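This section describes the prediction task in plain terms. A model, or a person checking by hand, is given the sequence of a single protein chain and must write out its three-dimensional structure as a string of tokens. No templates, partner chains or ligands are provided. The sample shown here is typical of the held-out split.
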Amino acid sequence: APSGTIVMGGVWTVVEDSSAEASSGSADSVSRRPHLLRQVSGDEGRASNWIRLVRPVLETGEVSVRFRINSGEIDPSVGIVFQVDKKGRNGYLIRISGADDELVAHYLLSGKRRDIKMEALKAPAAGEWHTLGVRRERTKIVVTYDGVEKMDLRDERFIRGTVGLWTEDDTVADFAELKITAR
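The expected answer:
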């Protein structure tokens, strides 16, 4: 796993994106391929796998990440966790559920998920890149999918914490271009 992170389940690794075109620069430069964060396997018996950053700690801000689901039989799902406490037990989770064709907002309380809101959303096809984003302004939470606002809700349970990435069950997924902006 990358430095500055805490693995909360699963096996996370940084890999070179072999599907991307190598960038070309001058004749003297070395071609580079972008790197991805891949959740490659889950822990037996765990319903979810996630990794969180140690920093930054946010109150108000935005988080977005590009993702692609490579495989998953039980519920191919990915998400963003945010405003998570130091122990990783309390905070928020926004996830795309492949089994239920839903975008779901949860809060985490003592490590258990509780639903806040659900919206219908066609599950992404395996291998397709999409972008999931969350913006927090005081008590307002706005969720975007591929740049389009999909969910607007209010919740004030948690106001400060770190950010992470999440998968469900046997999902194997790639994450790229994680952007975190404090406001």
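For orientation: The longest strand covers residues 61-71.
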